[in-house]
Structures are given as C-alpha cells and as structure tokens.
C-alpha cells in the first residue's frame, strides 16, 4: 500500500518527530516500505541566522543532512532509509521532495498549537490540501497539547 514514506523532520523540535519515528518504522515494516527522512532549509532560517551567503546556506544544508543521517541510523533495522533536505517553504519543500521520490505517504507531527494557529494555516493543513499523496498527521497526546 505504501512503498515510499516521506517523514517530515523539524530538526529544531525533536518532540515533533520522536514519537512519530516508531509509527513510521511500524508502517515501513508492515508494508516493506522505503522511508525518506526530510528536513527543510527555509529562507526564514537564513534570515534568522543572517546566513544569506550561498556558502553559509550550503553549510546549513550539509548540517541538516548530517543530523538526518544520525536519526536514520536509529531506524535502519531492516528498513531502507534515505535522507533529503528540501528548500523553500516547509509545505512546498516537502511536496517537491515527495514528488521527486514518488512518495505514497507523507507523515508529520504538528507543533504545539497556539492562538496564532487559529488565524494562520498550519503546515499539516497545507500539505493535506496540496500534496499528491496521502498525508498522515500524528496528533500529540493530551499531555503534549498546549492549554
């Protein structure tokens, strides 16, 4: 059913993907799927860090690949795992990578919700509307939700 699973990883927020990792591993074992872990190097990060120079941006992308490799090593127990770093906005970057690898499923965990999220669209909402494949949003448990 799912031969290629793309898992979104926010490297700044481990809590956003640590609980999703076992779910993705289970799905991969169940369907004999390949998994691609994907982080996005956004323009907003370049602004935050003041690293607009191409060399600095390339270094940032290389760092993300390295961090993703460390996460991938945790799940390579009989699973073929790849890593990708997309660019652009989170939504467009994930969709581009999903299309490039032929993903059947995108898995992500949303961040903590706040009042601002009621006014602005979330990444999970944008992905579910615009992705050409299924999107699985793993909701946090009640103990993780913002009050």
Structure report:
By secondary structure, this protein is α/β, with parallel strands linked by helices. It has a single domain (4-137), classed as Rossmann fold, CATH 3.40.50. It contains 5 helices and 5 strands. It has helices at 20-31, 43-49, 54-73, 90-101, 123-130, and strands at 4-8, 34-41, 81-87, 105-108, 134-137.
Key attributes of the depicted protein:
5-stranded parallel β-sheet, single chain, alpha/beta, Rossmann-like_a/b/a_fold, 147 residues, Rossmann fold, globular
- Which stretches are poorly predicted, pLDDT < 50 over at least 5 residues? 115-121, 143-147
Which CATH-level-2 architecture?
3-Layer(aba) Sandwich
Number of helices: 5
Number of strands: 5
CATH homolog superfamily: HUPs
Pfam families: Usp (PF00582)
Family: Belongs to the universal stress protein A family.
InterPro entries: Rossmann-like_a/b/a_fold, UspA
Domain UspA: 1-139
Structure, briefly:
By secondary structure, this protein is an alpha/beta fold. The protein has 5 helices and 5 strands; from the N terminus they run E-H-E-H-H-E-H-E-H-E. It has a single domain (4-137), classed as Rossmann fold.
Topology:
Layout: E1 4-8, H1 20-31, E2 34-41, H2 43-49, H3 54-73, E3 81-87, H4 90-101, E4 105-108, H5 123-130, E5 134-137
Parallel strand pairs: 1-2, 1-4, 2-3, 4-5
Helix pairs in contact: 4-5
């Amino acid at each position: 059913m799912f031969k290629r699973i793309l898992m979104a990883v926010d490297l700044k927020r481990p809590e956003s993907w640590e609980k999703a990792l076992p779910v993705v591993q289970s799905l991969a074992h169940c369907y004999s799927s390949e998994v691609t872990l994907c982080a996005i190097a956004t323009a907003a990060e370049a602004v935050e860090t003041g690293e607009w120079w191409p060399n600095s941006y390339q270094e940032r992308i290389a760092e993300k690949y390295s961090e993703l490799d460390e996460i991938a090593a945790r799940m390579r127990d009989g699973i073929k795992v790849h890593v990708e770093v997309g660019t652009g906005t989170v939504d467009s970057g994930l969709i581009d990578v999903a299309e490039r690898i032929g993903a059947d499923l995108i898995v992500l965990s949303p961040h903590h919700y706040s009042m601002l999220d009621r006014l602005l669209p979330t990444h999970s909402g944008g992905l579910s509307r615009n992705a050409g494949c299924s999107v699985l949003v793993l909701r946090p448990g009640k103990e993780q939700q913002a009050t």
